[in-house]
């Protein structure tokens, strides 16, 4: 948005662009669930009714709620993601997500844009971060949406109907979008995660290691040494960003993977427990029940029943 607008004109333009983007997403996501698009970083979501909490792993990304609302839990932190705001997630975190506002007449519509941290690193030398910007206490944050961020997103979604233009202009719009994020409220958070040697980047490296080795025994001293931090510093900054300790994070990864294996009918409960790193199936069942509200087999049966109801 290059032209200078008065506050009232800017507000009207923002509302108009949001309405257009909402209409386009509703057309492209014509059925419930996640929808891939011609631009691989961009994913759309639709729900026609409120639902039960579901567990998910949120990777680095920008989230935009266009209609309806979602309640997102990260550890003990709760976020309401609704229109007129955008959500930035700087690292991989396990969350509980629930659609809390949706109907057939006004479905919950969301847009997710996966962030390329390497591209962010390339942009950083030419970006002047906001002087007042402070790094968020959490790797997941919500800020008010403004036109400078909405504009490149809308133009990118428009190009989904023009594949040849998308191929040429898509990369330019993606860089513009990342630039707008870096110069916005969440820029300092993204810059710290992306900057080599920063505490945020060290935590990000620890998260990457845990995701690749979640089924192995965790020794905090060794993990801290691996990312060039003291054990106490890693614990403090890891909790600040993810709202949980490294051990709690590993447990979430294990339980989410076990749930995925059981839903895919790839093994029985004892085998799933062993594959994700548990030595005791009974301990696995106890921790699974605490995390998901029911023992493994009952939880999986409940999820399949809910999926069948949504499909019908």
TrEMBL record:
It holds the Pfam family AraC_N. It comes from the Bacteria. InterPro entries: Homeodomain-like_sf, HTH_AraC, HTH_AraC-typ_CS, Tscrpt_reg_HTH_AraC_N. Keywords: DNA-binding, Transcription, Transcription regulation. Residues 204-302 form the HTH araC/xylS-type domain. This is AraC family transcriptional regulator. It comes from Dyella kyungheensis. The lineage of its organism: Bacteria, Pseudomonadati, Pseudomonadota, Gammaproteobacteria, Lysobacterales.
